[in-house]
Write a structure and sequence with these properties.
By secondary structure, this protein is mostly helical. It has helices spanning about 1-20, 25-50, 55-70, 90-95, 95-115, 125-145. The chain has one domain (about 25-75, about 85-145): Cytochrome c/b562 (Four Helix Bundle (Hemerythrin (Met), subunit A)). Pfam families: Cytochrom_C_2.
Amino acid sequence: MKAKSLLLFCVCALLVACGGVDPNSPQGKRQTLFKQMLKTSEDLGGMLRGRLAFDAPRFAQGAQQLDELSRQPWQHFPQIAESERSSAKPEVWQEQQRFQQLARELEAATSALRTASAQQPLTAQAVAPLVQRVEDSCETCHKAFRAY
């Protein structure tokens, strides 16, 4: 009985391990980048919404990091649709021009936030509309191209 239970546990563990995404695959690389972008933008938004104390140098550093991250995931979307399960809708590949346009809009929004964050004195009121623009860019793309 113990041997059967152990065997069943091992089989289940292997099946769970096989369900992950290869971190070196295009999908794995872009998922990592998107998670880093989410963490960074959550920290910035948290400073503006009072969840975290507003720290101007830390905010500026986060804006710079978000701008750099916003330019990276797009290279990890292959030209043809992937065969593996993904959170990307088929429209990513069917509507490449629109997808690329939204990527550039996000990059422009993060660039504007980075530029404004370098201005002194840096205040939450000065950057709040720019953070909202970044968040709106993310939401627009997710609605069009992400399968939930």
